[in-house]
Amino acid sequence: MRVKITSKDGLILVDIQKDFLPGGALPVPEGNKVIEPANRYIEIFTKAKAPIFATRDWHPENHISFKENGGIWPKHCVQNTEGARFADNLKLPPEVFIINKGDRAEFDAYSGFQGTILENLLRERGVKRIFVGGLATDYCVLNTVLGGLNLGFQVFWLSDASKGITPEGEQRARNLMLNGGAIELTLSDLEF
Ligand code: VGL
Ligand code: ZN
């Protein structure tokens, strides 16, 4: 497939944060492998003057998704902690839009659209196609892709810039995204 990025496209990098990398509180196996491809996408979208969004899991200390509060996850991505920071070598440009999610104690949000202004920002800029990758494929990437499809965006899933928590989860997510109408894309599909 040949796709040319224009200023009406949007790049959405999901939760490329330290806690989701090896050594973090909720590590995605090989999560660090998404960073290099993500940096390439950032370069390409920057050259095309296309907007770039970076979501981050941004939980309060007492968040419901944490085991200690009855949830299923170890404590992760607590607001303003080291683990919530973006990966050190992720080259986010100064113009990046940072989207906080899951920032209220009583609600979790796997989708970057849930409880955020992401949709508004995309619509304001006339974005029709979104390109989504990051961590983790089986949770927040999946839900952001499905959320985008639901809102009527054409959605490309960046499989070379995404990693899942488990192989089964990854496979299931892939099927759900593609059956839902998302298109799988890698750097080699982009035309310059
Ligand atoms: C995520 C589990 C819990 C994710 C966030 O970013 O995929 N997964 N919180
Ligand atoms: Zn979370």
UniProtKB/TrEMBL annotation:
<comment type="pathway">
    <text>Cofactor biosynthesis; nicotinate biosynthesis; nicotinate from nicotinamide: step 1/1.</text>
</comment>
<keyword id="KW-0662">Pyridine nucleotide biosynthesis</keyword>
<dbReference type="InterPro" id="IPR052347">
    <property type="entry name" value="Isochorismatase_Nicotinamidase"/>
</dbReference>
<dbReference type="GO" id="GO:0008936">
    <property type="term" value="F:nicotinamidase activity"/>
</dbReference>
<dbReference type="InterPro" id="IPR036380">
    <property type="entry name" value="Isochorismatase-like_sf"/>
</dbReference>
<protein>
    <recommendedName>
        <fullName>nicotinamidase</fullName>
        <ecNumber>3.5.1.19</ecNumber>
    </recommendedName>
</protein>
<keyword id="KW-0479">Metal-binding</keyword>
<feature type="domain" description="Isochorismatase-like">
    <location>
        <begin position="11"/>
        <end position="182"/>
    </location>
</feature>
<dbReference type="GO" id="GO:0019363">
    <property type="term" value="P:pyridine nucleotide biosynthetic process"/>
</dbReference>
<keyword id="KW-0378">Hydrolase</keyword>
<comment type="similarity">
    <text>Belongs to the isochorismatase family.</text>
</comment>
<dbReference type="GO" id="GO:0046872">
    <property type="term" value="F:metal ion binding"/>
</dbReference>
<dbReference type="InterPro" id="IPR000868">
    <property type="entry name" value="Isochorismatase-like_dom"/>
</dbReference>
<dbReference type="Pfam" id="PF00857">
    <property type="entry name" value="Isochorismatase"/>
</dbReference>
